[in-house]
Amino acid sequence: MAVSAGARPRSRFLRGQMAENNIAKIAVSGVPFQLDRPYDYTIPDELHGAVKPGVRVTVPFGRANRPTEGVVLAVVGDSSFEKKLKPVSAALDGEPLLTPEQIKLAIWMHERFFCTVHEAVRAMLPAGLWFREDGRRRVSDKYVEIARLAVPAEEAAEAAEQRRRKAPQQSELLRTLCAVGQASVAELREFTGASARSFKALVEAGFVETESVQVFRRPERAAEAREPLPELTEGQKRAFDGILAMADGKKAGAALLFGVTGSGKTTVYIRLIAKLLERGRGSLLLVPEIALTPQMLRTFTAYFGDDIAVLHSSLSAGERCDEWRRLKNGEARVAIGTRSAVFAPVENLGLIIIDEEQEDTYKSENAPRYHARDVAKFRCAQSGALLLLGSATPDVESRYYAAEGRYGYFTLPGRFNNMALPEVEIVDMKRELRRGNGGSISARLGEELEANLGRGEQSILFLNRRGANRLITCVDCGYTYRCPNCSVSLTYHSYGRKLMCHQCGYTRRPDERCPECGGHLSYVGTGTQKLEEELGELFPGVGILRMDADTVSAAGGHDALLARFVDERVPILIGTQMVTKGLNFENVTLVGVISADQSLYAGDFRAAERTFSLITQVIGRSGRFERPGRAVIQTYTPENQVIRQAAGQDYESFYASEIEMRRLQQSPPFTELLAVTMSGADEAQVLKCASRVRAELCAAASRADGTRVLGPAPLSILKVNNKYRYRVTLCAVPGSGLRRAVADIIVRLSADKEFRGVSIYADTNPLD
Hints:
Blueprint: H1 12-16, E1 23-28, E2 39-42, E3 56-61, E4 66-76, E5 90-91, H2 100-113, H3 117-124, E6 142-149, H4 153-162, H5 168-180, E7 182-184, H6 185-192, H7 196-204, E8 208-215, H8 234-247, E9 253-259, H9 265-278, E10 282-286, H10 292-304, E11 308-311, H11 317-328, E12 334-337, E13 349-355, H12 372-383, E14 386-391, H13 396-404, E15 408-412, E16 423-428, H14 429-434, H15 443-455, E17 458-462, E18 471-474, E19 491-493, E20 498-500, E21 507-508, E22 521-524, H16 528-538, E23 544-547, H17 557-567, E24 572-575, E25 588-593, H18 607-619, E26 630-635, H19 641-647, H20 651-665, E27 672-680, H21 683-701, E28 708-720, E29 723-732, H22 739-750, E30 759-764
Parallel strand pairs: 9-14, 9-15, 10-12, 10-13, 11-12, 13-14, 16-26, 17-24, 17-25, 23-24, 25-26
Antiparallel strand pairs: 1-2, 1-4, 3-4, 3-5, 6-7, 6-8, 18-22, 19-20, 20-21, 27-29, 27-30, 28-29
């Protein structure tokens, strides 16, 4: 029986009466963080041997004995509760899905990321392995009927000749099986044109036998011959040797590989993975965007073939489930994927690579709110593996740890083919306005685009805002369309002529005139749709592709768009941050940054770092092969230091100024931010709860030196989906031990009836 926290421990005598290893400690699904703990259940005799750590089970939970799914964390011989325990109802898995190391990881995530153990487990396993409410698995295993000869080939060939005239389909089936040995029934019938009746006749006659065989659903990929490993340049060889020496160590470690865009970091990754495979150890490669996965997969498959498994959300549930199984079974030893692939069950893990490690996409914004880098560190510590962080614009914290000696530090200062970095020009958009150009494309960028079109070269334009216009406003009364559920303006999308909230998805049609005063409506700001329309007017008939969340929503959308850009040599690609990193196009020689200021004044301590990284990365897409590259940065603040440092591709200068600013602000890496967020429909109640959290955090912080409590303050978007959101932030020295105090405050206030209806959760170093 699941027991409340107030139950008294069993007496020593009663504990002695318990059968050995008869108690399962289970993480139950659906419980809130404040009630999360291992719940004790007895193991019935008929389930002994089936209920093991790592197996999912069904248990009766709560007063109503509601059938609830859980995960067995341990099997022990005793319980500390004296009430009669309830029995486990059923075991859902034949063998454990989680290893002991993964169970430890789930418990660590519970402590580190303020989530329940079951939430951590759900993040680890593909969705297809979970069950529906009716008890069926979301994705069933796929089986194929395989046909093979049941008699010697000579006898089958003789029978085929005898049936050549009277039963030509049976004859063709037998001849084909004599040639190929075995094949799936569906493929065999399709190839020979035989009917189901003809095939059945051969089975009944004893010439053919069938077997149902499980097969893995695999993402489509081109079948290519294995290529020899790429050669390393002198600079790459130095980095490779140093990193490999760390990977050969007996202890876990971490290293930072800093290389300018186009320096060949991927080549170093390939050689490291190959060397680890030679030594019987698996590897894991994370990329920040789904758009990068197909290109990276093609590259690595050419060298490692079926040793590669891919994991990301654009796969079908069946494909993702089967790729996970291939890794767990040891049929694939290298996993490539996005953030959630950090949990991939790679056997004998020796190396985790996080490419473009500075990207925000490695941080989950939903429970469990983990950062892939933190999870990777824990996994490396468990398995004695090496964590390799790679980037042309490393995270400021990672660069600081490298400077402090916590990480190994390796550099690739030049491009692999000795090509120069792109020439960059900064355009002052205030001057463009004074000259009467109110469009999104400056005269200088327009000239460069025209020159590229004349030479048959391709261009990439980066604008990190989708839609057509940021908002619609009345020029007479100032009215703007706002979301009724969120405290944001609606974004206008010209395709479908609709206004949309990018927070909750609310949509509506715009009016012809202002709904308040009947005045004229003005369309303000530019998104990727509007930019596409402007380019169509500037360059009629020129092919333009747009890559944003609206155009790549379908499965495989990223890959299809990028394939068109390459194969059809489409002159211009417009995109959001999807186009800023990891892409390698031979014919791209021009990059335009449409609005460099957009992320610079976001009110976040990472704003400068994020802006520098985006600009530097997208500039690096230009001139990566034989033709020299150029870039045009459009900005209203051309003298801004960050924009100038990005234009000069000068990361070290940026880092030196940014780390001093962080030191003055006492922000990460000098402190750790533990943010407690409250949300609810009643703003006054949410604010009251936030004030209480602040008071309790101040009391806890008074016992630790060097801590500050900030807030309560509204989030940058106060209301989302009719829920008001306030936050209190604890700035603490890393390792100060205040994480437990934060968890206790959440548990206590979540159970307080005064704050019923208020949701409370905590996050480490949040993105917003």
